[in-house]
Amino acid sequence: MTDPKKLFLKTYGCQMNVYDSERMAEAMAADGYVQTDVAEDADLVVLNTCHIREKASEKLYSDLGRLRPLKAAKPGLKVAVAGCVAQAEGAEIQRRMPLVDLVVGSQAYHRLPAMVRGNRAAVDTDFPVEDRFDLLPARSGGRGPVAFLTVQEGCDKFCAFCVVPYTRGAEVSRPAARILDEARALVAKGVRDITLLGQNVNAYHGAGPGGDWTLARLLRELAAVEGLARLRYTTSHPNDMADDLIAAHGDLPKLMPYLHLPVQSGSDRVLKAMNRKHTSAQYLALIDRIRAARPDILLSSDFIVGFPGETDQDFADTMALIRAVGYGAAYSFKYSARPGTPAAERPEVDSAVADARLQELQALITQQQRAAQDAIVGRTVGVLYEKAGRMPGQMVGKSDHLQAVHVTDPAGKVGELVHVRVLASSSNSLSGERIPG
Ligand code: 5AD
Ligand code: SF4
């Protein structure tokens, strides 16, 4: 018997890429590849890339540079670049880095096995019309109690800074029945917590019995899946927070009290220049309605600082919005011009000014995140154990609010959903004790 072939897979960027990487690994497993953490052992290296900011794309090229000696020592090694850089740059990647054997666009993962076997062209950046996930093997699961499930891809919003509409294409929703099947298959393999993924997930409008389903309808049906304990979804656009979705946050106990709702900026002038199509007052009114439906909901957002034309006053407006909302978490980025997007044509804010704003914003978010954690101390929360902790007898999991919780529980098992009294809050996590029952 020959040894199985080995796959080294590196994922850059977002949760959608994490999901895509899992699916690619499953597709290659069907061809006899097992995953390795050691690049030197690999027969196939797949780099699943992100194009959203310049730094993310640059990482690809520095990693490819580091693969050069490996490829020289092992000519049979195949190197594949997948994901959004592959989609955006196509064959250009091979011109710049001849060691790259395969370029697999973000819509072509189901064709990766055939490309590796040499049965297809080495560069594939087509946008197929079919549901690419259905062309991949069934979910294998077995990676713990938490899973992502892509329900929607692409984006029609065309925010002025963003490459997603170009790299991931127009919005496409998967049919509801396929999503329900995939969710049931995951639950059968031990998954208890599913996060529905989409670049614009709350715009979901997949075909279902009786016509197109909204995300709220899909969540309702998923909530009925026995054995599934928790549901979440990400990422959402404020303009697609429909009434039925807001209501679902009040009605569905399995829908966890955490919502990532990016606003990007608190300045109406900047929001307009970003083509976000809402004002800060509209966003704040929306937050009020969501909190009315689910008062304990924890909110998070994405922010961009230093967007072209952003003044001190615009930035002050963003800080005021953050203070008004009180976030439980947030991701913040310095603006990065992306070729082909409208904002890339506009004069940039001074880099040092943008750096200073980013620091100030992040300090405020850190404060708010800590305040949200501290507010939970003394309360009892649901925790789903994801793995054993570093300390003996310790388990680590996530609270309903997606906060990391360390629990001393020598009898604890991965996949258990337990009640925990929170005793302490530290910079990035909570700790507590299990309450019987
Ligand atoms: N520069 C900086 N941040 C960006 N994002 C998207 N495009 C850019 C860009 N050109 C951020 C947005 C988005 C998140 C996924 O990445 O905040 O919500
Ligand atoms: Fe990009 Fe999100 Fe805007 Fe779509 S809604 S263009 S994915 S930032």
Bound molecules: 5'-deoxyadenosine, iron/sulfur cluster
Helix content: 25-40%
Radius of gyration: 22 Å
Q: Report the principal-axis shape.
A: globular
Treating each run of at least 4 consecutive H or I residues as one helix, how many helices?
A: 13
Which strand-content bin applies to the residues?
15-25%
Write out the strand line-up for the largest beta sheet, numbering strands in chain order. 2-1-3-4-5-6
CATH superfamily of the largest domain: tm_1862 like domain
Q: Domains counted in the coordinates: how many?
A: 3
Please, could you describe this protein's structure?
The chain is an alpha/beta fold and 437 residues long. It folds into three domains: 5-124, 3-Layer(aba) Sandwich (Rossmann fold); 132-374, Alpha-Beta Horseshoe (pyruvate-formate lyase- activating enzyme), CATH 3.80.30.20; 380-434, Beta Barrel (OB fold (Dihydrolipoamide Acetyltransferase, E2P)). The chain has helices at residues 15-29, 54-73, 84-89, 92-96, 112-117, 164-167, 176-188, 215-223, 243-251, 268-273, 280-293, 312-325, 351-374, and strands at 5-11, 33-35, 44-49, 78-83, 102-104, 123-124, 146-150, 152-153, 172-173, 193-197, 207-208, 211-212, 230-234, 258-260, 298-305, 329-334, 380-388, 394-399, 404-408, 417-425, 430-435. Strand 18 and strand 19 form a beta hairpin. Helix 9 packs parallel to helix 11 (280-293) and helix 12 packs parallel to helix 13. The termini are far apart. The model has no long low-confidence stretch (mean pLDDT 93). The chain binds 5'-deoxyadenosine and iron/sulfur cluster (SF4). Iron/sulfur cluster is lined by residues 155, 157-159, 162, 164-165, 199-200, 237.
